[in-house]
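Inputs:
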Amino acid sequence: MLWKRQIPILIVSLIGFATLLGWFFDQPTFKSFVDDDATQWFDILAAFAIFLGGLNLLKLQTQKVLMKQKGWQYSLFAIGGLLFAIVAGFFVKGNPEVAWGAHVTSKGTLFKWMFNYMVSPMQATMFALLAFYVASASYRAFRIRNFEATLLLSSGIIIMIGRVPLGSYISSWFILYLIVLVGGIVVNTIFKNKQYTAVAVLAGIILVTVTGSSMGWPVDKPAVFYLPYLQEWIYRYPNSAGSRSIMIGIGLGIFGTSIRYILGIERSYIGE
Amino acid sequence: MNYLVELILKLAKVDRRWIFLIIGFVVLIPLIYPLALPIRPGKDSKEVYDFVEGLADSSKVLLSCEYGPSTKPEIHPMVTSLLHHLFSLDRGHKVYVVCLWPDGQFMAEEALEEVAEKRFGLTYGEDYVMLGFRPGNEAVVKGIVSDLRKLYTIDAKGTKIEDIPMMEGINRFEDFDFLFSGSAGYPGTTEWVQFAADPTSVPMSTGTTSIQVNEMMPYVLGGQIKGILAGMPGAAEYEELIGVKGIGTSGMDAQSVAHFVIVLFIFLGNLGYFIERKRSKKHQGS
Amino acid sequence: MDILGAWIAVFLTLAIFSFLYKDNAFYKIAEHLFVGVSAGYWMSFNFWTQIQPNLLGRLWPSIRYSEDSWWYSLYDTFSFFAGSIFPAGGIDKGHDMHLIYLFPLLLGMMMLFSLYKPLSWMARWGIAYTVGMAAGLRAYGVLNSNVIGQVKNTIIPIVGTDLPFFSLTGDSYFNNLIILIGTVTGLLYFYFSREQTGHFSKVTKVGIYFLMISFGASFGFAVMGRISLLIGRFLDLIKYSGSDFHHASIWVLIAMVILLGYSAYQEKESSS
């Protein structure tokens, strides 16, 4: 129990306190240990953790093949891929002029070839799939059910259109006409009277047309309806206010959780 | 009118694979047949540009690359444009490249080869140096802040740091005049702000993926980051400012059309939803 | 090798994209290959950039090499079996000897022993170290920049200076007021220790609106980001469709469409 529970908790507390106090103590030996050696150990252990992950994968996939579980044939590709990467990393350099160690970053090596033509395309494509799902979700799932959802979608649409070059071609007056039409729908919803709706829409159209004609239909005036300026205002001010409140809230949460780990209250890393 | 309503309702239930196909074509066609839409630089991109323009002669610039192949279309044009901007000013700026992501090292090497080596014919070790990747996330940032030479004893090519001429006088983060972080996630800009820029007041700018921009805006507004290149549009804006068009600019045509199509999808989807809702209310009423 | 690499990259890209049609053998092969190759890639990369230079390079630095030393005799034994990892004469990465690094070596080896189920508890020590270090680093960093820094930046002038009342693209009283109100009301929304009723609920409702604007902007940026990734993949596929690469994209696409179409036809026949 001591080895499995108390010592790990002690390690977290000791190292956590040392790292935290390292910001406040100016003692050279302590500071040097915390800033340099302790940091290096963290890097080294992170590297070992990656090694552990890779070996674990090999173990699980091999078990799947040996026990002929469902889809075991595909596991052969996983094992083959891992072994190929190990061979490229440890046994076959492919470029005798490059030293071991530098071969993982140098050109002309088998390892770099594997990165350029296997790892890189597959990684990028996995992420690129998300573009299709975002489009599908936009069509099938995003619904204006209430005022909050309307705000969300409106700000999203304004940002999406306003940030791209095509958005700068949309005149403020087009947006004003759209607002007049939306206003007409709102009037119709409230009063349910076709005459009122028609009068409201007509009045709006006349007002916009007269104002626009008198100003000469400039694309970017009134500026508040020009999408590139509007999106910049939304993204710098109301959006930042919301993001800031989220950031402060999350920051306080992270601080609290870190202190819980250091004090040994939170012990999820040992399965408790 | 009824036919139109029925068509909209039918479209609302369409197989999503048709949506995938439409998006595929909508992104592909402008890449093959560009529209050459003009780019209008925004305030945040201009702030980065102006800050780089205003750097004192022979400034030491730390460039940190934390992106990989998946986010290369967004961040790589920013990094190459920044390198081009720094070297084209011809004011003796020195560029030191570190990477918090392993993939970042490959990306940075590609950028340095394209710009520093081929475009400007600069000398490695005198004008630019690739210190390379070190694992450890924020611990690496902390290490650079306290004692860079303990963390980086050799550069990415295996040369000892003390043998590199431009490393003279560089011992910690405060010896740099400016930091630019090309970041696609964790570890990245946030860690640089929290552990390096804020505690030391070395000015920094950043270029991030579009998804991260919202997280970074509080830092930008608070002055902790001097401007931000926001995703591919930010990269295109910076290319426009330096006058060298690249992938950022060429991608904006496809980006524009795709956004319009997605907005159209949202509009059509909601139209179908409202019609459906009105019909079900009528049925309930009757 | 580059042409072979291009064909492999195109196959893997289109195999992953084929998932958009439906789950199929091409996708499963690419997915398993991705998992295996990525694991092997990370293992190799981290070994050569971290474990070998920073850990082994500090335990057996070339600067202290001595044939008479028992410690280096152990090194020479390792060197006999793995000369690439343990080059003759010690590891020259600019470090001096720091035997204190036996501690992270021990923790790292314990992590690897945890692959054997009865010894799985051994990984806890290494994990505890990384958790403690991360907690200590985060506690300070997040509190300083995300909480105190953001609160400081929210203290902005709303009266008394020569700012304009409203500006779409620059600082103004109205914009500063928006930031202040948005941040405070957004934060109040996250205050769950008190029931959100009465006047308090009106205030938190305003906070929700700011948060919705922020989420909408995040959605817009997310769409932008995903489309950018897709653009990157398509640019590569367009490059590989050229004559330099023997029109790889086109041939692989045709082959996949034919094979997937045939498989769909066979499925339809067997189901009917």
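Chain A touches chain C through 131 residues (CB under 8 Å). Flag for discussion at group meeting.
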